[in-house]
Design brief:
alpha/beta; two-stranded parallel sheet; globular; six-stranded mixed sheet; 247 residues
Length: 247
């Protein structure tokens, strides 16, 4: 509920599933809700489509099988009351029936860049609220079909410095159901692990090239890569040996 708030909800249906036409029928008379279908396929295309249409000062993303918790509104207020560019909250991992499995808290660092490079920093995007102005000129990679959240966050911190605040509250429910989904909390498999390593290596090179990869960030990047090596080595020893060497 958001009584009297100046909010907008942009729903971007895409792909072949048309059940949204019936499931959104009861919401079409709410002036705050804008349903903007697109023929472009993929979660990144949907997020770009919605981001281009956003008009409010703050923006956040949410997948259709997750949901926000009441503290999400306090997260937006905290960002509005600060001069920060991004505010992050905790992630509650839940089953499809709402049973809590655990909570992903915030990294101890105060550097958003280092947090996105270290283990556990690649949180689902629903945990972050951004000032829309800080995202100008940035876009999700629509050619990528693996670990879009990781690529977005690493590309974001490689592109610009972000002033960060954290809210110690659960703001989004990350649902782990029996259905197939693009993101999950378990070992994502060989392709996704390799994709994540490539993204981290590329982001580290960009940060190093711009003189922004200091010791703390270099250490966070090494820890992030080592965490991937531990999961990926059993799939492809020569590739992961190279990643370990880089770490």
């Amino acid at each position: 509920e958001c009584e009297g708030c100046d909010a907008e909800v942009i729903v971007v249906p895409n792909g072949g599933d048309l059940t949204w036409r019936s499931s959104l029928r009861s919401l079409v008379n709410d002036s705050r809700i804008h349903v903007l279908p697109t023929d472009r396929i993929g979660v990144s295309a949907a997020r770009n489509h919605g981001l281009a249409a956003a008009t409010r000062p703050f923006v956040r993303f949410l997948d259709d099988d997750d949901y926000f918790l009441p503290s999400a509104s306090a997260q937006v207020r905290a960002l509005a009351d600060s001069a920060a560019d991004v505010c992050s909250g905790n992630i509650r991992v839940v089953t499809a029936d709402g049973h809590s499995i655990g909570v992903r808290g915030q990294p101890t660092t105060t550097d958003f860049c280092a947090a996105m490079l270290c283990p556990g920093g690649h949180a689902p995007v629903g945990s972050h609220v951004y000032r829309r102005a800080t995202l100008a000129g940035l876009a999700w990679n629509e050619a990528s079909s693996l670990n879009e959240d990781v690529e977005w966050l690493v590309d974001l911190v490689a592109a610009r410095e972000m002033d960060w605040i954290k809210l110690d509250a659960d703001v989004v429910a990350w649902v782990q159901g029996s259905w197939a989904r693009l993101s999950h909390g378990r070992d994502p498999g060989a392709s996704a692990l390799r994709r994540t390593a490539d993204v981290l290596l590329r982001g580290g090179a960009r940060l190093d090239g711009s003189g922004r990869l200091g010791d703390a960030r270099r250490h966070a990047l090494a820890r992030g890569l080592w965490g991937l090596v531990q999961k990926g080595l059993r799939y492809d020893i020569p590739y992961w040996w190279q990643v370990a060497d880089a770490a």
